[in-house]
Amino acid sequence: xxxxxLGGTRFVGRHLAEAALxxxxxxxxxxxxxxxxxxxxxxxxxxxxxxxxxxxxxxRRWDAVxxxxxxxxxxxxxxxxxxxxxxxxxxxxxxxxxxxDHTAIGRHEGSPLLEEASGESYGVQKAQCERVVxxxxxxxxxxxxxxxxxxxHDFTGRFAxxxxxxxxxxxxxxxxxxxxxxxxIDARDLADWAIRSLxxxxxxxxxxxxxxxxxxxxxxxxxLELCSAVTGSGGRLTWVPESFLLERGxxxxxxxxxxxxxxxxxxxxxxxxRKAVAAGxxxxxxxxxxxxxxxxxxxxxxxxxxxxxxxxxxxxAPEREAELLAAWRSQ
Length: 331
Ligand SMILES: NC(=O)c1ccc[n+]([C@@H]2O[C@H](COP(=O)([O-])OP(=O)(O)OC[C@H]3O[C@@H](n4cnc5c(N)ncnc54)[C@H](OP(=O)(O)O)[C@@H]3O)[C@@H](O)[C@H]2O)c1
Fold this sequence. Notes:
Blueprint: E1 2-6, H1 12-22, E2 26-31, E3 44-47, E4 64-67, H2 73-82, E5 89-93, H3 122-136, E6 141-146, E7 149-150, H4 158-168, E8 171-175, E9 185-186, H5 187-199, E10 204-208, H6 220-231, E11 236-240, H7 242-247, E12 252-253, E13 256-257, H8 274-278, H9 286-299, H10 318-329
Parallel strand pairs: 1-2, 1-4, 2-3, 4-5, 5-6, 6-10, 7-9, 8-11, 12-13
Helix pairs in contact: 1-5, 2-3, 4-6, 4-9, 6-9
This protein binds NADP nicotinamide-adenine-dinucleotide phosphate.
């Protein structure tokens, strides 16, 4: 098939491009030429800007479009509208953040979404983007709602923090308790299923989370023990109550990655993925994602990717972790 990817050179899109090329498709990547522009010499690269210059689409046709980097409804409207006559099928990469209620366990594709009136957050905007795509491509669109995406090339370093931290060994500060739930979709599983889906002309909305079929949700304890076993570093986990960490200003999800705190997020790591699993989503064992993440870190001299300036806080520095552990012990 001839596939047009909007994006494709950072993380999720990069895996989509890799999967599409591996499955023998002709791939065109549309981007500005600033992020890893030398990747994928086997693909065609069209330079432009979703926020203004769409002229590279003129006179072109593809079988399907994959919109990976749409965040703002009007920007999505411009590209998705421009392309309605240029392809038969449109896939939009959305997010679980579109759901209105993170307290609910087992949210499925029909669960309520955030409305425009609830502000301008990432989730509200992505929900609006979904509506734009469904309006412009009725019956011809596939909407993917991934949970946390994990694996190599994740520039946020959120999942990578734990394999990285356990590999260093010693006493490891773990947030809350080992029974906290954890879900994440390996970017390669997401990409493989997305490409197979558009080959099949699949339409509709799908939660795309892993690493197992709901309601079998791993725990943070299982993940951290797995990281310890895979790295063989003998790291010892010290679980510190959430209230202690919050009182000391530790930022959930970012400073201690993957940890979401309190009843407001009860359902965050418990999304129902059974519709996608029934439609052929395959999920690799979590240990494979941990190993691949460590291999990717090794290519980067073992360093976590730096946090962009002005972005959310970086994972705890070793000194701060040691201070918090000492404070906890001296209680
Ligand atoms: N990471 C997660 O855990 C997670 C979870 C749920 C959902 N998601 C969704 O997954 C997607 C993540 O995307 P990604 O960044 O990993 O995708 P990506 O497609 O690998 O990278 C972003 C691409 O967009 C291009 N780009 C950025 N701004 C552009 C513009 N104005 N015009 C044209 N091209 C532009 C970049 O290249 P240039 O800079 O060269 O233009 C790059 O190729 C998002 O839709 C996000 O909402 C992510």
